[in-house]
Amino acid sequence: MRKNFTLRLRSVIVLALVLGVAFSGVTSIRAQGGTGFYVVQPGDTLFSIADKMGVSLSELATINGLYDVNRVFVGQVLTLPVAIRAPQAPVVQPPAPVYVTPVNVFPPGTTVTTVTSYLGYTVRAGDNLSKIAERYKTTMQLIMGANGIVDPNLIYVGQRLVIPRTRTTVSPAPRAQRPVGRVYIVQPGDNLFGIAARFRRDVYAIAKANQLLNLNYIYVGQALIIP
Fold first, then answer.
1. Closest Cα partner for 106 from 37, 24, 171?
2. Number of Cβ within a 10 Å radius of residue 49
């Protein structure tokens, strides 16, 4: 009985050694020609992995013993064959340009007047909003806002449009008028008649030049124009 047990034990050991050699052979075959490993991520397919890593789909399936190319699972470790091209670099989208509306700055005192007028227009064959806006010296945005248009490409022949036209007039600040003649500063004890006599001018001319309604009212420190 002990002899039978020994024979069975030897058989098990021999079988284990044979299986170990077999599995080691399979492992070496799979690793042969491999250049690395890839862990399957959510959303991956064997086709996308081959394209992403630049390897042959058939070689990728062969060295990994995959008989169903449509079946891989997340976390699966795949041996990669020799690449046939460089792996795809991730596409980096450039940041969207930020458009800043220009702001016109005018000097103090400038008068800016904006007048908007409206015209009627019927869309003709070959028209688009860009052409219409250019023709009437306005913008697509103004036309879309005036007509409730959401998509600038959706206009049709015969459509009646309202065309807003905006005209802006900029009037610079008026220049300060320099006084004509000399300027006299009223001193204590002065009156308009004495000042007129001193400069040999007509008192009414001085009053008119300084917009004085009362000839008897002037004050110390007042600047008077002597025409």
1. 171
2. 19
Cβ contact 215:195 at 8 Å: no
Q: How confident is the model at residue 55 (pLDDT cuts 50, 70, 90)?
A: confident
pLDDT at residue 21 is higher than 50: no
Encoding tokens for residue 93?
A: 């989208």
Structure tokens at 105: 């700055």
Cα(126)–Cα(148) distance, integer angstroms: 21
User: Which DSSP state fits 164?
Assistant: E
What type of residue sits at position 150? V
The answer to whether the predicted template modeling score (pTM) of the entire model surpasses 0.90 is: no
Q: Taking every pair of C-alpha atoms in the chain, what is the biggest distance, in angstroms?
A: 157
Domains by residue range for the chain, with CATH: 2-80 (3.10.350.10), 111-171 (3.10.350.10), 182-226 (3.10.350.10)
**Residue whose C-alpha is closest to residue 48's, from 67, 34, 69:** 69
Highest mean pLDDT among 4-8, 166-170, 219-223: 219-223
Conformation bin of residue 171: beta by default, left when phi > 0, alpha when psi is -120 to 50: beta
CB atoms within 10 A of CB 163: 19
Is 46 a residue whose pLDDT tops 60? yes
Q: What are residue 65's phi and psi, to 5 degrees?
A: 65, 35
